[in-house]
Amino acid sequence: MSLSVILITHNEAHRLAPVLEAVSWADEIIVVDSGSTDGTPELARRYTDRVLVTSDWPGFGPQKNRALERATGDWVLSIDADELVTDALAREIQAAMAAPQADVYALPRLSYFLGRPMRHGGWWPDEVPRLFRRGKAHFSDDLVHERLVFDGPPARLKTPLLHDTMPDLDDALDKMNRYAIAGAERMRRAGRRATPLGAVLHGLWTFVRCYVLKAGFLDGAEGFILAVTNAEGTYYRYMRLWLHTRPKPQAPTPR
What we know:
This protein has helices at about 15-20, 40-45, 60-70, 85-100, 170-190, 195-215, 220-245; strands at about 5-10, 30-35, 50-55, 75-80, 85, 105-115, 115, 125-135, 135-140, 150, 155, 160-165. With about 260 residues, it is α/β, with parallel strands linked by helices. It is globular.
């Protein structure tokens, strides 16, 4: 059984090498880059000759489908540029392909925030369908928070995929802002509406759910910062939606 590893990139040269090195055992690696300016495509070509650079950005789901369309393996493993496949996970993936119990496998994902593994706050266990037979699944067309679309329940692997999602606060703030912009656009396209008060209440609820109900306080200071960051992202997402959909105020008329 052959395996295609697919991933999409944009300005990931600072962390991409170990990610690609960790899956160098796969039969092919396909990288679709959305116009990086930091040498990401050149770095990727050290590990694979299947690198495509696109001139546009259609969103996470469509871009991942572009990578999927170029896969030729019997099986496909989809990873992100901040996710690491350990040796133990590689062995479990190979065993699953050798004696498959399903067409799709979900992997537990252990995410790191500011260098700390987050085991609470709703972040663990974070089971994500990532390994599948080619032709049995595809990605949704969502701009952000895309999902793998397939029939039936997935089987589950046990070894976690390591996810270094936000190594420092600047990265966390940048990702929060980008996701808020994309999330607001997705809600606008779906016909959703928002108000400033609703934005505040959604943000407060996000903090309570993450820090209190999901026990984020057990992850120490990082758990608190994560809950605040998530709350801010939710607040800005709804505020951006309100700003995009409210009646535009009339500009003052010169006298």
